[in-house]
Structures are given as C-alpha cells and as structure tokens.
Amino acid sequence: MPPAPGTAALVIIGNEVLSAKVVDENGPWLLRELRELGVDVRRIETVPDEIPLIVESVKRACEAAAHVFTSGGIGPTHDDVSIAALAQAFDRRVVTDARSLALLEEKFGGRMNAARRRLAEIPEGATLAWNEQSLFPTISLEQVVILPGVPSLFKLGFTTIRERFRQAPLYSRAVYLSLGESVLAEHLDATVAAFPDVGIGSYPRFDDADHRVKVTFDGRAAERIAAACNFFVTRLPPGAVVREN
Amino acid sequence: MPPAPGTAALVIIGNEVLSAKVVDENGPWLLRELRELGVDVRRIETVPDEIPLIVESVKRACEAAAHVFTSGGIGPTHDDVSIAALAQAFDRRVVTDARSLALLEEKFGGRMNAARRRLAEIPEGATLAWNEQSLFPTISLEQVVILPGVPSLFKLGFTTIRERFRQAPLYSRAVYLSLGESVLAEHLDATVAAFPDVGIGSYPRFDDADHRVKVTFDGRAAERIAAACNFFVTRLPPGAVVREN
User: Fold this and answer.
1) Residue A133: its pLDDT value, please?
2) Contact at 8 Å (CB) between A97 and A70?
3) Does A201 touch chain B (CB under 8 A)?
4) Chains A, B: CB contacts under 8 A, how many?
C-alpha cells in the first residue's frame, strides 16, 4: 500500500546527535514547518553516519510516508555518506552534476581539489532546485529530500522547495483543565468513541501551572474538531475548564 | 547476533512531538546521561501513539541495542498505550501489580476508579524498581525500560536505575580549526585509515565563530584518541589549530 498523501517522515543522520555533542535543531524546526504546511509527520529516525543503517532507515521511511526528509551527512569529508547511501537505497550510481561542478570550478579556480569535486556529486536521476543564496541546490531523489545538517543550510534547503508540500490545513484546539487525567479518562473515552475521525491527546503536568491536563483535538475538519471539543467539555463538571484555545 | 554490550536505543512515543506541539526534551536529556555513563546510543525512533508502530519500533530497537528506553504513553487515558504495546512486543499479558494497586488504593481510597486502577498495570513478568519520591516504580521488561513522557517523571524514573547502565568511560577530544573541510578532507581520510578504531567526526560551521570546522575523536581507549588527534594535527599547516579540548 503506498503511503498516504500529505504524510512525511524524517531521517536525522548524525553521530554528533547520538553522542550528545549537539542537540538536533533541524528535526524540531522541520516539524513546525511541516505542521504549518498541513503535513502529517509519521515518524523520525535518528541514525549514525553508517551507510547500511541509513539505507534501511530511508527505505522504512519511504514506506511510511509520502515525503521523506534527511538531515546531515552532506559534505566533502569521510563522514559525509548520505549521497552514497541515498544512491544505494534507490539502486542508483553516484554521478557528478555538471552545473554544480561548473559553479564550484568558477568559485575555487586553481584551488579546486578532490574534496571540492565531491560537493558536486548527486545520486543519478536526482532533481535539483537552485536558489540565489547558495552554491548548493536542494537535492531530491524520488520522494526523498536530502538536506545538509548545518542548521542554516538545512533551513535554506527546505525553504527553497517548501511550497511543494502544502496540504489542506491541519486544525487544532486545546482545552486546559483543572481536573486530573484519572477523572477525565471516562469522558475522553466517550469522546474518542464518538469522534473516531478526530485525533485526541491528553497531556498531564505535575508542576505549578494553571492547569493539570491539556487535552488537544486535531484534524483536517474544523467543524468536527469544534464538535468533539464541545462534546467533551459539556460532559465535565462546572469549573473544570481553565481556558481554551 | 545479539546487540553489542554497552549500547542503547531510544523509542520516543508521542503524537505531541510529531505534531510539533512540544519539543521532546527527554531524548536529549537521556542522550547526555547515557553518554556520561559510557553507553553508546545507536538509534532513536520517534513514533505515534499507535500500538502496531510502537511494537515494531521496540522490536527493531531490541535488535539494535542491548538497552532500550521508551518515553511516553504511560498513564490512565486512551492515548496511553505503551504498557499494552510492550506486553504485545514480548508476547505477555497485561496484569495488575499488587503492590502498585495497594499504594494507589491507600492514596485514593473511595476515589479509586477504573482509570486509577490502570496505573497499576504492567506487562506480566516486568521488574519494578521503587524510589521514595514517587508512587510509581520504574518498569523494565527484558532489555526495555518503560519510562513516562512527563519530563520530571521521566528523569526520576531513569535516575532510579541509572547506575545499572554504567560502562567503561567514552573519551572524546575536539580540535577547532581555521581551515575548511575541503582542505582538511585528505588529512581526515589519512587519519581515519590509520585509526579505524577511533570514531572521527568533522563538523563545519558557516557563521562568525572562531573556527570553521570542529573535528572530534571518540572511543574507549584514551591513548588511541590522543594518538589519532596528534597524527591529524601534525599533518596540518601552521596556524590551522585554533584550540583543542
């Protein structure tokens, strides 16, 4: 079964993330962007800079979602293996893109070397989207967008092709409650049963916030979300709702 | 082949993370803790609150790593499915733990209800570690530790059993360089070839930091890391090293 339209999966490639040297900021940023675009993100995998693991992870992501985004592993050094991994995942060769190579030769002239030539390599058959702020295009291969890990380049690469992914909006409402989850559970169960088409989440907290639980209602049909929210709230005792948004 | 000792994998369970309602803080926190304990984290998967996807992800994590940690999906509401998912992953029944139930009954008395009773449910055969600050034990099943998603409870749950996971230390050195990756690449390649037992990473930046590339050397043998670092640095032209640590 092909993945549902409007879905995405992320593959974060980075030993530096797994070894806690840096906190990944590309994943959370892209999650916010995709949410704003109405895209439903189904999974994220964070994997080491190892070709077999990247290949597996990308294949799995392609089965789970219509669009796959990889972060990291792009560049001229030994640990930049994403182009090779993506080529392998789709059984393609790694080739040199002529326009990229010409731009690099123009920039580096006599300082061109093997490492810089690697920057022009792409999986055969990839499509490239250029933007004016960068020497490097955004590389897509089938349903996969291959983005670099440096956050400024990651953001620029995605922003270049952002509008490709826009879907019908996702709507969300939240109700903040003074009651605990154990009291709300039966009302949540009733609401979930009555509105199977609405995504309903319950998030407790145990600090000194103004509420004990936040309940969220998510979906593409605004009127169904409003109805589910109303159904839930009218079942609660007076004073239970602290605020809504 | 059983997973290598001293390795870990994380499974973050949470629609709220995938839908960008919250930024996961448990994953980055646990990565730092595990690093400090000398544990090598091999992968992270972030998946929705859906039993079949959690089961798959946990099984995959168990093949990849000696220790697996799940975050989220613990509690009394409809979207708390981690206990059921973990039981299913290991072909166990969900049972009620007698000590947990007694503690909950003592606390709630006449206000005990079905939702609160759910808080005493565990996969059959799970082992429980109690701590004095919480009504809830840390639940382990085989190689999996099942932690709640609320950050304060996640941290307490892990801290209760933290020392179980301590390994020989992981050592790391970093060299900050004034040269770009395309110039460093050949020296990195030579170092990687000479020190296959050392993990070497290269991280460029394109901002106004004092360096252009950070190169890291990681492993369990401090003297091999020092040797690899020295081998690399002595190949570079004068002035290339901004600082080391």
Assistant:
1) 87
2) no
3) yes
4) 166
**Model pLDDT for residues A191-232, shown as the tens digit of each residue:** 999 999 999 999 999 999 999 999 999 999 999 999 999 999
SS3 content of chain B, % helix, strand, coil (to 5): 40, 25, 35
Q: Are A65 and A145 in contact (CB under 8 A)?
A: no
- Determine whether the interchain pair B77/A218 forms a contact, defined as Cβ–Cβ distance below 8 Å: no
- Give the ipTM: 0.96
Please answer whether residues B68 and B44 qualify as being in contact, where contact means their C-beta atoms are separated by less than 8 angstroms.
Answer: no
Nearest to A70 by CA among A78, A80, B57: A80
Q: Is B121 on the interface with A (CB under 8 A)?
A: no
Reading the block at residue B65, the tokens are 């790593």
Cβ atoms within 10 Å, residue A245: 8
Q: SS3 for A93?
A: coil
- Tell whether B42 lies on the interface with A, counting CB pairs under 8 A: yes
pLDDT band for position B186 (50/70/90)? very high
Q: Does A178 contact chain B (CB < 8 Å)?
A: no
Nearest to A184 by CA among B107, B118, B103, B49: B118
A11, A45 Cβ separation under 8 angstroms: yes
How many other C-beta atoms can be found within 10 angstroms of the C-beta atom of residue B118?
A: 20
Place of tokens 């000696």: B66
Smallest Cα distance from A129 to chain B, Å? 21
pLDDT category of residue B133 using cuts at 50, 70 and 90: confident
* Of A42, A61, A58, nearest in space to A50 by CA: A58
What are B53-70's pLDDT values in tens digits?
Answer: 999 999 999 999 999 999
Q: CA nearest B146: which of B115, B125, B117, B132?
A: B125
